[in-house]
Amino acid sequence: MTILPGSQLTGRDFVIGGIFTAPQQDNLFGYTDYDTAMDFTQLARAPVLDVLLDGVSRVDSVAAGLPAGVSFRTWKDLATTFVQVNSLLYGILSVIRIVILLVTLFILANVMNRVVVERMREWGTLRALGTKKRGILAIVVWEGTLMGALGAALGIVLGFAIATAINLRGGLTFNQGAQITQIFVHPGLNTVLVNIIPAALVGGLAAFFPALRAIRLSPSECLREV
Fold first, then answer.
1. Of 13, 133, 138, 139, which has the fewest beta carbons less than 10 angstroms from its beta carbon?
2. Domain-wise residue ranges, the chain
């Protein structure tokens, strides 16, 4: 049964082939074809259309292709709770990433400081052979940058391997009341640059100050270092 726009009550006989229910909701949904629904409600056209896409990435392109004057709301406008929780999660992950980068900065700075001290005679030899200070500085900074990028690359490979192992075992089990959902992990390729570039920059920054120590001494002073 349904209430028509003029407040009249009407009804139709249907054969129910199946119902759909959402977890933690009291509503039960039944689906029918468009012509039957319009005859049942006696509407000239549908007041609201729900468009289900095969991916979140297509929302902006589909919304941009709608005719001018069409009012629409995307899933972000409707799922406000999800957006808030997702924003909170990204905020927490950003803080964790900053902490990890700071720890990496101190670790690499300590490593590069020891590398510079242990290779002090090499810097003196290069200086004696005519290598300029900025050349020594570039060598040390470039080495630190490569160490940061290589460490990030190894971490990404390990992360992809763990994600593959999780998916092969059937994913992560998420119990949502009476419904059990299997969550599969699919890392995006865009995360490669997002993680390698900051790590490389931190590595270069960590090597910069030890490199200043290598170029501050004269070639003779460097050669006297043990």
1. 13
2. 2-78, 95-224
